[in-house]
Design goal:
This protein is mainly α. It has eight helices and no strands.
Length: 187
């Protein structure tokens, strides 16, 4: 695209010089100065999706991921986070689900009040097959990669994210309640 523009401008410049018209030289000079701005025009097309590629990509992603996230949302809705927290606490596991694996942000818990060893917490989750599978269920699909400038959006994904966040929040709050009781019982 740039090569074509430069060639056209050079042709116009040569033509203007042969006719000895200064107006033509001024126009061609202005056009030559505008050539470096071509990438900005391309960025405009990407941002505004003038070629419809983003819409096409969204349709591909929806066909691929909507069934996955619909099934995950269904499985999350069947679980009771408070009962799960009670069960794992009773089995001797005090764990919390981070917003994303290895994250230091735990939904439902105040960041300033809780001092959770993220690495130890993640190691406990990884050691238990069920907890590990549950964390995978609550996370984005591993095939769901981000593409620069485009983001997969759908009502199904929104529902999944909402249910996942609610589950983590309720689980973490219940586990925090139980672990505080545990700490006070030890003292």
């Amino acid at each position: 695209m740039r090569k074509i523009l430069v060639c056209m401008l050079m042709l116009l410049l040569c033509q203007a010089c042969t006719k000895r018209e200064l107006g033509g030289v001024a126009t061609v000079s202005a056009l030559l100065l505008a050539v470096p701005l071509v990438p900005f025009a391309e960025a405009y097309h990407v941002v505004n999706d003038t070629k419809g590629k983003a819409k096409q990509q969204q349709e591909i992603w929806r066909a691929q991921f909507d069934p996955v996230y619909a099934k995950r949302a269904e499985l999350i809705a069947l679980r009771d986070p408070k009962n799960d927290a009670d069960y794992y606490y009773a089995s001797g596991s005090i764990i919390f689900f981070p917003s994303m694996p290895t994250s230091e942000i735990y939904p439902g818990l105040s960041h300033t009040e809780t001092k959770i060893n993220t690495q130890l917490n993640q190691a406990r989750i990884a050691q238990d097959e069920t907890l590990s599978a549950l964390q995978q269920l609550l996370s984005e699909d591993p095939l769901h990669t981000k593409t620069a400038g485009w983001k997969y959006t759908s009502d199904t994904l929104d529902r999944f994210e909402k249910l996942s966040r609610q589950y983590k929040t309720q689980f973490n709050v219940r586990m925090a309640e139980l672990s505080v009781l545990h700490i006070h019982a030890e003292n």
